[in-house]
Structure formats: C-alpha cells, structure tokens
Amino acid sequence: MDKLLKKRGKALAIDVMASAVVTAAVEPLLRKKLKQEWVHALVTPTVVFWGLEYIQLKTCGQTVGHKIAGIKIENADGGELTDEQILKRVAHRDSIMTLQWLKERGQDMGTQMPHDRYAHTVVRELDK
Predict the structure, then answer these.
(1) Mean pLDDT of all residues belonging to the chain
(2) Dist. CA 80–CA 58, nearest whole Å
(3) 2 neighbors 110 (Cβ within 8 angstroms)
(4) Residues sharing a CB contact under 8 Å with residue 122, sequence separation 6 or more, in sequence order
(5) Which residue from 3, 45, 92, 118 has the least number of CB within 10 angstroms?
(6) pTM
(7) Calpha distance 73→53 (Å, rounded)
(8) Pick the residue with more confidence: 50 or 97?
(9) Structural element, H or E, at residue 124
(10) Of the candidates 72, 83, 85, 86, which has an alpha carbon nearest to the alpha carbon of residue 124?
C-alpha cells in the first residue's frame, strides 16, 4: 500500500475518533431537545464530523488527523481551499466515492482519490 494512502487512512481514523468524542459530548444536550432517535443515529454524527472538518480546513488548512499524519489538503490550482471545495470533497467522500474507489482500486490514488478529483484538491506530505 502506498505510504501516502496509509497516512490518509491514519488521519481519517484520528478525525473519526475526535468526531466521536465531540458527538458523545453534544448528543446528551440534543437529546433533551430532539426525541427522534434517527437524528441521533444519523444526522448528529454526520453534522459533527463534517462541521469539524470544515472548520479545521477553513481555519488551519488541516484537521487534527492531518497534522498528526503529516499531510495537508491543498487546492489543485494552488491557493487556499474554497468553501465549495471543502463541502464538495466531504459530500462526495461520504456518498459515492466508495463505489468509485472500488471500481478504480489498484491505481495509484495517494495524492488524488476520487473525491479529491471531484473537488479539485490534492493531498501532499509535509516535510518533517
């Protein structure tokens, strides 16, 4: 497996764990207001995960997982990530990207996976 792909997996695992901690803290507060179980099972974790990722990418250019793994998401054309790129990237990654990845597996996707191509972003390793 490609070194960069391993780092991406590590970063995602860290980000999922951080999101789970925040979701666990927020959910009891929401349970007092919202009684529908499907909201807590589906909507809350998704909104927290996407929200954390969006805020971190917009303010720091990296998530906590990216910092620990030593990678950074960048605009393929150079410059800062736009709001549209961030939202397109997370929505595509968490919807149809898996099907595209399965179709294209075996190809080198370290710097640009299907959701990166869709959002015109690249992932780069940072110098240590």
Answers:
(1) 89
(2) 9
(3) yes
(4) 73, 74, 76, 111, 112, 116
(5) 3
(6) 0.85
(7) 11
(8) 50
(9) strand 121-125
(10) 72
